Amino acid sequence: MSKQVFEGLKVADFSWAIVGPVVARYLGDHGATVVRVESATRPDIVRASPPFKDKVAGINRSAYYTNYNSSKYSLSLNMDLPQARDVARRLAVWSDVVIESMAPGVIKGWGLGYDDLQTLKPDLIMMSTSNLGQTGPLASMVGFGTQLVSQAGFTHLTGWPDREPAQPYAAYTDMLAPGFGTSALIGALEYRRRTGKGQYLDLSQLEGGLHFLASLFLDYQINGVEARRDGNRSTDAAPHGAYRCRGEDRWCAIAVDSTASWQVFKSQIIGVAWVNDPRFAILQGRKANEDEMDKLVEAWTIEQTAEEVMMRLQAVRVAAGVVKNARDILEDPQLSHRRHYRTLNHPEIGPHTYDYPPFHMSRTPAEIRNAPCLGEHNEFVIKELLGMSDEEYVELLVSGALE
User: Fold this and answer.
1) Of the candidates 359, 13, 27, 19, which has an alpha carbon nearest to the alpha carbon of residue 208?
2) What pTM value is reported for the model?
3) DSSP 8-state code for residue 357
4) DSSP 372-389
5) Which secondary structure element, helix H or strand E, spans residue 125, and what is its range?
6) pLDDT tens-digit map of 343-366
7) Catalytic residue among 13, 44, 174, 294
8) Is position 230 annotated as part of the catalytic site?
9) Torsion of CA 286, 290, 292, 295, to 10 degrees
10) pLDDT tens for each residue of 91-104
11) What is the Cα–Cα distance from 90 to 8, expressed in whole angstroms?
12) Which terminal Cβ of the chain has fewer Cβ within 10 Å, N or C?
């Protein structure tokens, strides 16, 4: 295999939950040496999150954790103890990059803030990622992405116009922020390569999420139009929605966004008079009669499988896609062809499936390694990476610092 793009890069991952660990995972999957720091006294909350292999709970059995923490070493440190903080400081100095996602002020309280570490290693790059950033009147507000999607405006827009808001699935902003964090780190690494200087990166997950609603904010700023919940409807397309198909809970999403698309869409609904109704000839007419039209479209889709509807419409270049469940995704032939799912033999739960990075690099491909069990690599990190002696390692064990 060719040399990986981040081979030789050393990363101390003091983050938890999703955003920071995913950024560190991208680096590790592409060759960086990543040390994940946790504690048995306060393990990452994701370790306690299902699904668990064979539905047996355990601190090393969460598929949620393993999928977001591949290609890392695990060092367990009880940061309540000064001996553990000394080790953490040595790890930070060993590193090129430090990533943390504690509530603002926590890492500084341990003596591991950027100002503290920069005096020990001037070219260090450090990234802090938090809900609202490190500064401002609300910076100390703690929370999770499941609540942040509401603060960012997503929940207000999700659901039907005559019902209360419906929260998007899971911590949606947690899936958006890692791309910004990884890009920022790459930029900081390139800056250091050119100048020899490190820097501090302050990633606000709220501000990252706002980018995905930018057009709606601009519409309000410029036109005074406040976006509201509208179910599956679109101002620019009709039909536009998820339509019931044959089978239990089977649906196909369809979007007809131009006169040309409407004409080829009509060509697939043979022998049905309503498609030539003049009320539906142009977008404005279809929008004005959308409730009726949706019922007519669904009367056509319900007679076919979701896959048949998708393939039929895709064949004439109308946007359509099966509304897939978990089984559909795992058995998807496109994902199988690209080997998106990789199976590794985890030391506790056995054969286990991981997502491959969504981008393939032809000259420096990723190489995924198992997510670590908690504290699995304590001795390796202490002695091999940090160069501490056998005696020092034993002292740390006895003191409880490696818990």
Assistant:
1) 19
2) 0.93
3) P
4) PPTTTTHHIIIIIIS---
5) strand 125-130
6) 999 999 999 899 999 989 999 999
7) 174
8) no
9) 110
10) 999 999 999 999 99
11) 18
12) N
